[in-house]
Amino acid sequence: PMTVVKHEYSGLRVPKKALRYIDSKPGVFVVSGMQVKFKEVEIVYNADDYVLCEKSESNDALRLYDQVVVKGKNLKDGKIIS
């Protein structure tokens, strides 16, 4: 069997159910200490159950090892969690 690769993508893999839109901008909520922060993402690739997001070294961007919130209600930037 042979496989032909047409495109190759790299980035941070995020479950689609973690993706949120604020002011029509895609992003995810991450746990930072005792707070939830919204981090905008730039989607590089869109699959059935996940997306690949561009990797960045900025503190405001999603980074490797960030704790991404997958489920939650009434999430907002700066919300205190217990």
Features:
single chain; 82 residues; mainly beta; three-stranded antiparallel beta sheet
Q: What is the arithmetic mean of pLDDT?
A: 91
How much β-strand is present in the residues? 35-45%
**Element pattern in H and E:** EEEEEEEE
**Span between termini:** 52 Å
Please give the number of β-strands: 8
Alpha carbon gyration radius = 14 Å
Model description:
With 82 residues, the chain is mainly beta. The protein contains no helices and eight strands. The protein has strands spanning 12-15, 19-22, 25-32, 35-40, 43-46, 50-53, 67-68, 79-80. Strands 2, 3, 4, 7 and 8 form a five-stranded antiparallel sheet that branches. Strands 1-6-5 form a three-stranded antiparallel sheet, with no helix packed on it. A hairpin with a 2-residue loop joins strand 2 and strand 3. The model has no long low-confidence stretch (mean pLDDT 91).
Give a concise summary:
The chain has strands at residues 12-15, 19-22, 25-32, 35-40, 43-46, 50-53, 67-68, 79-80. By secondary structure, the protein is mainly beta.
Task: Describe the protein's topology.
Elements: E1 12-15, E2 19-22, E3 25-32, E4 35-40, E5 43-46, E6 50-53, E7 67-68, E8 79-80
Antiparallel strand pairs: 1-6, 2-3, 3-4, 3-7, 4-8, 5-6
